[in-house]
# Entry
Amino acid sequence: MVIPLFPLILESVGGGIFEFTFSFFLFNFASAALRYPLGYLADVWGRHLFLTACSCTCVLASAVAIFYERSFLLAAFTLFGVSTAFYFQTLYALVVDIVPKDEIGRSYGNMHIAEGIGYLTGPLLAGFLLEVRPHLIFALTLLIFAACIPLTLRVSKNAGGSMKGIEKLTASNFFRALRTVWALGVLLFIAELLRGFSVGFLSPSLPIYLENFNAEPALVGAITMIAMACMYAAQAAGASIDKLGSMKIFLISSVIAAPLLVAISLAASLTQAAALVFAYHFMSGLSWLAFSSMLGYYAIDEQRALFLGSAWSMWRFGYAFGSLSCHFVWESFGIRSLFPTAAIFTFASIFAVIASKGRLKRSVELASSI
# Structure
């Protein structure tokens, strides 16, 4: 509800290009910086309470944002970033804990679809409230996340971790685990950094770009909702990813997605731009699922949450610094230049994944021989 339309929310309180891009930098930098320690703790202590901590942080962020002033909104968006550091690697590691490796794609796809059911109506509702009483957006998110707390507490009681507290919690053990994770996943992590840069150029600018075609906030919200629906529709391909291979599907979908970004920048009308945005989001959703499945498949059992957290930390760092760089490119070359720039980073991530094939293949062969 909040993230896709945050530039429009800031615009409603007098925010400009710097605030749009800086807010995404704060969100993603906070998320990225905390994923390493929280991923490690999820492996050592188990998955319990990390999902609940996410809901509590979102409640606090919503309470701050209700004041609906620029500084409060930036602080709230930073807190929303913190909440993601509790949530994503913990939940994705938990799924891999309990499903066979040849069903990771289908399981992640089903999880994304369930997430999408709740996510899809958010931008449309937020776009409507933005035109009526904007602060009600955050009153509603506060109630939703408060309702999630007892639900996540129930999940937390049965959530495990790979190491379950058997390793002593010390800085040296943390850095040893981090070195192990990076030795295997470095090229995948670089690919995530590049993918994050691509999204960092896209997310702050897309709502404003659509608005430049004289679209009202409610219509931008509707287009965003349909784009998200296209992205989540791609999640039904999880079983195909398990069958055909996550790396192959990632490469194919990314090769198609990058030119679509260039085409968005060349759109002559809102209709053309929206159609291209929908197509891009479908291919982006397919590459998201394929890459997530690839990470889950190759994650080291004993450091699963740390492996996933390291990958998504790099994605968030890329997103953060991409959003910050977006400000300078936007002001220097115009908003249309941001989409080809995002395409360049998408293409670069493809080469990083291709380069990782040998290292990942050797790790699988080694694991199977033990």
